[in-house]
């Protein structure tokens, strides 16, 4: 795709130095004349879409082009007499959009819908006519890209159009492919618009469509859209970057020579590879200039190595790092760990003897196609296995392509499904529009694992609160804690890629979120749900606060030091309540007031304090008998009969309760402290497991 940018003073046709090499441009005047001549004879394709057919056949040699002919005839007839603001016949626009998609490798159904994408919106053609002639699938895609009526929605028309389009994209991602190509052609011809309208369209493109192109992996569209927006919104920086590229064009470019060296190395190693020099687009050069200051010749492009198999990628990497000096900090493996937008490649950088540093991208040809075209390269991601094997690319009239089951999201992390979930809760178009732009600004995704083995896709920086709402929806209002990688943590804790999170919910259905949850929520679903609950409960009305009361205690008759023995004759021995040592813990004893000896685990913080104040240390050992005393803390949700169930679980393990304390509930959580006499210290792990198995108990630990 073309990488040049268009500003109000410069049309693309007048800027040949900005065109990406090998790019075929539409001759809009020729297409306009062909469109005005009317349809061609029935035995061949109209001349005006011959270039579309050629591009399509390059990717799909066996494609049936008759449906494209019928779609073009309907589009040309319905748009006849309409003109664009640039002066060309309107049919040149759907033709240009269709050519963009054909060059990316879109299948026939997408191209058919692309030719018709403005017919329902701008002509007398109806959706029923499209459905009758081209089938349900083409009709659905055309409807998805059709704008809502401004007369019905007023100022909310643009947000509601995007909402409608995104909902349709959730069921068929090809809707967004057409929208992106449509915006690209409109941006290419934006020079005829008023400057203020150019700026408004460019800002929407920057905030919404470019992030969507990035998430869908359509880099060929994304990079050109970035350059076009750059030229309109930042004309001075654009002109400076253009001058840098123009100056570099007159200098010796070191990258072709480096590419020749790479070819020679790979040829000698027996690896079949295609080595290309890829110029950077304008925004990429601008970013490099901001980061590095003065640019060198090798900064204006990168070397692309294309191979046949995944294993060859690593073979190329090994040869490059053997024969050149690698820049280790620049190495990234996106094959083993693909980006969230389907992108896969190896990135590295090598230094040459002349002192140049060249960035190198290594990928297979299939990876290259996906890197450029993203979801467009998937063809029809919803076709059945039989249809795919048969090479079917379009749906016959009146026959839906999918079964009754819900379609699977073809995007890997499921961000699209997440977006569809929260948009249903957006109370008004302004909220939807603002939250959408905020959501799309999150350019990194993480994957966390649920306790049941499932996964959650979240934006980088998400917290346990976000995970709770992603997993449970509004039921997450009752979330009171979480375990991350097995450890109890606060709900505000941020999550990292690969974490395992277990969310703890209160049994009380009236529980609600705290106001400070908004400070830690990153996902729109969480923020909208929390905000709605807080708005509905302005006084914070949730579960009634528990009336303070004294802890409930049950105390037994035994005490003392259990089976700990101090090397001090006639001394009274006590096991410290702060760390409750049991055999075979390493322990230390200290003489306290009254001559008694308290026994602590050797790593207890009190040991360091005792030594700091000069307490006398006494050697302590365990008797040969196996019984011991230990204090355990059990944390649980409040519910009836919990104390009885815990006591029963302890009794089943043959353990005596010396004392038990139950603290008043706080936010539906209850803390129990048990001092227990065990007949055998080896039974402690089994006892703790039995206590954790009691319904409502989410943590048991030693004091």
Shape: elongated
Helix content: 40-55%
Characterize the largest beta sheet: strand count, sense, and whether it forms a barrel.
Answer: 6 strands, mixed
List the total number of helices.
26
Mean pLDDT: 79
**pLDDT under 50 segments (min length 5)?**
1-45, 385-406, 541-559
Give the percentage of residues in beta strands.
15-25%
Task: From the alpha carbons, calculate the radius of gyration and give it in angstroms.
Answer: 34 Å
Distance between the termini: 65 Å
Written overview of the protein:
The chain has 26 helices and 22 strands. It has 703 residues and is of the alpha+beta class. The strands form 5 sheets. Strands 1, 2, 3, 4, 5 and 6 form a 6-stranded mixed sheet that branches. The chain has a 5-stranded mixed sheet with strand order 8-7-11-9-10, covered by helices on one side. It has a 5-stranded antiparallel sheet with strand order 12-20-21-19-22, with helices on one face. A hairpin with a 6-residue loop joins β20 and β21. The longest helix has 21 residues.
